[in-house]
Specification:
0% strand
């Protein structure tokens, strides 16, 4: 549906004086094969790809899922191999990151949008793998704790037990995690407003800002997952059924939001002055229409297909699937 929307807008969507440039500058004729193979996060390596730009994230997710499945299989069969592979992959990605940083001049600022950072670094999987790998390690550690595979008194067991049972520890972890994330966001804003931050600042931002942010997020969310009593009000709010529809629509909003923005830009008679209030209003408008479009695709496409799959192709109940997966990890 996203690809259909993209092509429909580019062929029939507008009549503005710049709209004929949409297909030329945002078309998929030269790079559709990389999207089909889920390699558009790597190829073309140095040239920007404007064909459904935000799908580089899907390609990263796909290959991270493939790597994650292999890592989890090693976690089940050979824990030493699991940790060894995780460390080796992280070191490999760190080496590629360092080489890319020293060979190029990166500036993670929207004030220098044509900078090489946005083409040969930002979308590439090696600079996002560390955060994903930390999630895999944390998930596997939580699984071992949940099914009581850790020896009591071990370091990880004691840490997770403290997050779960001690209200003070759980509350401090939430506050500290929020504080760490807030500091990283302040640093990101400073980097955007002041691109010339020097070599040390660039190395810190490019190599450490994402992992540190994930550490903060993990500290914030683990007491919620472990259901610490001090976090009970937040857990009850987040567990309310009112969030279910929004959760189902969010990814569709993420994919189609920028398409609507680009459609308007290419259909203008002339450029707009960058006024903050007007930009905020346009953001709200695009956000609303993206939710409406995502809701329509869910009602008429996703939900019917999901019902067909559940009715004709799934022979086991979800409870049986969960039980089998539990046995798989514990065996």
């Amino acid at each position: 549906m996203i690809f259909f929307l993209w092509k429909f807008i580019s062929l029939f969507g507008g009549a503005g004086p710049k709209f004929y440039q949409f297909e030329t500058s945002h078309g998929c004729a030269d790079s559709w094969i990389w999207h089909f193979l889920m390699l558009n996060n790597i190829a073309p390596w140095e040239a920007p790809d404007y064909c459904i730009e935000e799908t580089w994230y899907i390609a990263n997710d796909f290959w991270f899922m493939v790597a994650g499945l292999h890592l989890i299989e090693k976690f089940r069969t050979n824990r030493s191999m699991f940790f060894g592979l995780s460390i080796m992959l992280s070191i490999f990605c760190l080496i590629i990151q360092s080489i890319s940083i020293f060979q190029n001049s990166f500036s993670a600022s929207y004030l220098t949008y044509n900078d090489e950072y946005w083409t040969i670094y930002f979308k590439k999987p090696f600079c996002h793998f560390h955060s994903y790998n930390m999630g895999v390690l944390l998930g596997c550690s939580y699984f071992k704790y949940k099914y009581q595979e850790y020896k009591k008194g071990s370091r990880i067991h004691s840490m997770l037990e403290s997050m779960k049972q001690q209200n003070m520890t759980g509350g401090l972890c939430v506050v500290l995690g929020i504080l760490i994330q807030f500091i990283i966001l302040i640093i990101n804003s400073a980097v955007n407003n002041h691109p010339d931050i020097g070599v040390v600042g660039s190395m810190f931002y490019l190599l450490l800002s994402r992992p540190i942010y994930i550490v903060g997020f993990s500290l914030m969310v683990m007491p919620l997952i472990l259901q610490n009593k001090v976090c009970k009000p937040i857990i009850n709010i987040l567990a309310h059924k009112q969030w279910i529809p929004y959760a189902r629509l969010t990814y569709g909003v993420f994919l189609c939001n920028t398409i609507f923005m680009q459609y308007r830009i290419f259909n203008l008679q002339h450029g707009d002055w960058a006024q903050r209030f007007v930009i905020d209003m346009y953001f709200c408008a695009f956000f609303a229409i993206s939710f409406l479009f995502s809701f329509a695709t869910y009602i008429f496409v996703e939900a019917p297909l999901a019902n067909i799959v559940n009715e004709f192709f799934r022979s086991k109940s979800s409870a049986e699937v969960l039980q089998k997966s539990s046995i798989f990890f514990r065996s």
